[in-house]
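Lab meeting tomorrow. Look over both lines:
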Amino acid sequence: MAGGLVLFAAALHVATREVLVLAAVGIAASTIDDGVIDLIYLSIWLRRRALRMRPVPAANLPSGSSWMAIMVPAWDEAAVIASMLRSLTTRLDYPKYRVFVGVYPNDPATLAAVRTVVDHRISPVICTRPGSTTKADCLNHIWRAVIAHEAEASIRFKAIVFHDAEDVVDRHELRVFDHLIPGLAMVQLPVIPLVDPGSRWISGHYLDEFAESHGKDIIVRGALGAAVPSAGVACAIDRDVLAMIAGGTGTPFDPACMTEDYELGMKVAALGHRGALVRIPGFAGGRTVATHEHFPATFETAVKQKTRWLLGIALSGWDRIGWQGGIADRYMLLRDRKSIVAPLLTIFGYVAVAMVLVDAEVSTVVPAALRFDPLVAAQSPLAALLWLNTIALGWRLGLRASFTAATHGWREGLRAVPRTIVGNAINAVAATSALRRYARIRAGHESPAWDKTTHKFTVPAE
């Protein structure tokens, strides 16, 4: 019996060391990649501070004289679409725009909700096929309605603006789009998740991810000259550029695509045009012009949404886009596709820590285990690697907390640190779910569909 325990302890000790080495190496590689982005961002931030670069507040921009078309695809959105449209038409400080809302013939509740908002600037667009198809297919129907309206009204839209049925649209956004287009072919404004007091940890982890992504990562992409992906909302594209993307087919989006927003930014760059995420205050010293919205509040719905993102960007996107563009584009594509591996690597790290704790506990039960070589020898490369990962972890948590605090206040900044564990768990489950769905799609057992979540709409305090 004693001999069996010693063999078990020895096997566990060896396995723990191997898992620890693999986890440390993988996490270090990912850490170095993230560190490169952090250093580039810091250089951008320091340069702007040194040059005292401050954008003109959106309220000081001209009100605009160009027509804007706003596209809002809506499947099963009867609960929120009317409130969203009323808010949009009440809040927007811009004289010339039209809202095209895509609905389905087998979704009469959403169509009825749209028609309760009596405003001549709102045009329902009924898709030809029953829903749900894909969001890309719905957008194609709206695009054709936009072109038809131009011919009927003898106008030409300057830009096409994308929003979802749960968006709280900033009053100044069309001024910003009008000012920056066509100098930029695509303008992405930040997306800021709304705080959900009933879901501080699940919905709350989106606060942290978007604060860092739209405060740092996407800005670095643009600074490096890489393609800037669209978020699908709070985004405008030059009307003529979108027509170029549509090309001979007459439709700018592939109906089989599940992340048409992400690919839109890639298509803009492939045509030689430039897109950027723009952060500009509404008023001097005021908050950033951005779109606010609620994000999933339960573990299941968060996993569902993240699964679709990972499936479309990291897996199907690899098939559809490949490795196009220059060095910066390929590097960013690699980072996008790392998102399917990084959550699993993090969980692997948690497993390694758990095994170290179990190994230490076993040594108290099996005295012979005390004579084993240490898991991590002092001054060894593994020890150095673990120290590097520990320091980098502190840096990453502190940086994320600072971005969250800058957007949502210091309390949410503090919550961002423990919320990382929740986000890692959601992302890991979503990664495994995305891999399973990808295998089913490749095998022909599943077709792309609009895998949406249930939305809610509230307007935040000014």
Notes: The chain has 13 helices and nine strands. The first strand starts at residue 67 and ends at 73. The domain at 58-297 is CATH 3.90.550.10 (Spore Coat Polysaccharide Biosynthesis Protein SpsA; Chain A).
